[in-house]
Amino acid sequence: MVSWSVVSTGELETLELGKKLGQLLPQSTLVLLQGDLGAGKTVFARGVARGLGVDPEIPITSPTFTLMNHYSARHDLYHFDLYRLSDPDELIELGFDEYAFGSGVALVEWPEKLENNETPGLWVNLQRIDDEKREIEFSLQGDVDSQLVTAVEKICQ
Ligand SMILES: Nc1ncnc2c1ncn2[C@@H]1O[C@H](COP(=O)(O)OP(=O)(O)OP(=O)(O)O)[C@@H](O)[C@H]1O
Ligand SMILES: [Mg+2]
After folding, report:
1. What is the second-level CATH architecture of the domain 18-129?
2. Is the confidence at residue 1, as pLDDT, over 80?
3. What predicted TM-score, i.e. pTM, was given to this entire model?
């Protein structure tokens, strides 16, 4: 598995990194966002949404209770937060696979709840170094679009 790592020195830098990725993402991309509470998953997701061109007036917050938010942009964006998922069967009710493996872009916070750490896609792992610093590791799992590889390489340069 190929992986890249960068250090973000503050919220704005993580937001910017997400934005750059969002500008480059091909359709049918699944991004799995790992990290502890407060690591910066939602900040990164917000950046991706901005990069994809979601209306800047629309706030991007964690869909903690609804489990999924949908936004219209260059590609349809489905933002999941599975923290409160109590039973994997709920994923079926949500229609998770249709969104995650459909033609849009899906961002998933707490992908551990999928109980499959080999889910194909772009895995992003955020780790707190201190109050402001985060180590962000990108790894590609499975057969992914070459445009996605290029996108990750570009943002990690
Ligand atoms: N370099 C950084 N990158 C991202 N966030 C940072 C950074 N430095 C500090 N922060 C702060 O860390 C917090 C990250 O919050 P965020 O909601 O994105 O976390 P999360 O990983 O989505 O948590 P949760 O699991 O609760 O959804 C924010 O308060 C943000 O200001
Ligand atoms: Mg969050």
Report:
1. 3-Layer(aba) Sandwich (3.40)
2. no
3. 0.98
